[in-house]
Amino acid sequence: MTDAVFNPFDPAFRANPYPFYDALRERDPVHRSPLGFTVLTRYDDVARTLRGAEFARDIEAHITPRADDPRNARRERFRQRVEDGVAAKSILNLDPPDHTRLRRLVSQAFTPTSIERLRPRVQQLVDDILDTAQERGSMEVVEELAFPVPFQVISDMLNIPTDRSDDVREWSQVLTASLEPTVDEAGLDAAEAAGMQMAAYLTEIIEHRRQHLGDDLLSALIQVEEAGDRLSSVELRTFVTLLYVAGHETTVNLIGNGMLALLRHPDQMQRWAADPSLDATAIDELLRFDGPVQQTVRVPMVDVTYTALDGADIVVPKGQMVMTILGAASHDPEVFDRPNDLVLDRPNSNRHLGFAAGIHYCLGASLAKLEANVAITSLIRRFPEAQLAGDPGWRDRLTIRGVDHLPLTLT
Ligand code: HEM
After folding, report:
1. Is 3 part of a structural domain of the chain?
2. Which range of residues forms the domain containing residue 379?
3. Is 135 within 8 Å of 250 (Cβ atoms)?
4. Ligand 1: nearest atom to the Cα of 353
5. pTM of the predicted structure, to 2 decimals
């Protein structure tokens, strides 16, 4: 029987966390981890935590740090840099009212209607990639499709050239690696260094764009800043960094994990290839089944109470971190019938928590779904006989989970 523990240091857990999530949800759904936080795996607990106004996302501001925590010096350094105006918290790490203000400024560009306008461009990109692959008869899905499409699209939106994609990809990977629960001091140092390199690169682009405004998202954000002095230069750069990283680091995994799930369920893949009416539910089901973002965190600003399996109260004190396991919530049998099966026409697949919930609900959700939909449906409709041409390789990551290698034969 799988142990009901949250142990990100266990390679078996990282390789396939779902049996561990099931064990936790069934036996210890409000799990007090020896790592110092509480791990939630039931849908209702996770949803309530993500939506609750009593929970903060600005961890640094609300956590009660242990006196012996080696991260205290780093926290203090960052706090000082924010105070000095040379660093800013990203939208993801802000609480209202700052969060509300930033989100309002940028949400216009990401409404479903604005995003739908990008469809022809996304389709063109995907078609060109598939043309090349067709001539060869094979394809490496991650390298050729899952990374380049979202990266090109977010670069187009911001009008940032793609000639340094290798550097940007490297910095992004180092930055997102620091979200892992297993990250050590060296990983945090590396993330700080990568963040500085990314900041220097984007600062140069932003300063140039100020002199050459155009019809792109970056110009729009610059103008928002200049019109009302509402987005400082540092806030602007921090936000553009998040968009740029989030714009591809996660969607690559939706396309990669999604394609792998389909290849492992060829009957479902064939059905979807033949039936476009499944488009409406299938991407949500892929997000539910094996989503790119597996967990996030909150800190309660007051003592909060959860209920243990035996009905007892479990109080999480104010200031103590709570980990919400999105991947576990999206497999809760209380909400999803036969949760460990892939069911592309599942009627409630859109209740998954793969984009979180509440005020931090993913800003790029419509964009990610559009890109994944076009990429996956175009691939499986053109190559319904596509097959795995070797073992897929997984990135050894828990927070942002994804395949990094997915070779296919196409005919
Ligand atoms: C399949 C792909 C994606 C997944 C699974 C995903 C997932 C998430 C999740 C779970 C959060 C909330 C985290 C939390 O509450 O702690 C989030 C927030 C966010 N995402 Fe995504 N994301 C994806 C793609 C994108 C894209 C393409 C963009 C932008 C181009 C984007 C931009 C953002 C931003 C800006 C936030 C912060 C929103 C806020 O704090 O108000 N994401 N995303």
Report:
1. no
2. 11-409
3. no
4. 10
5. 0.95
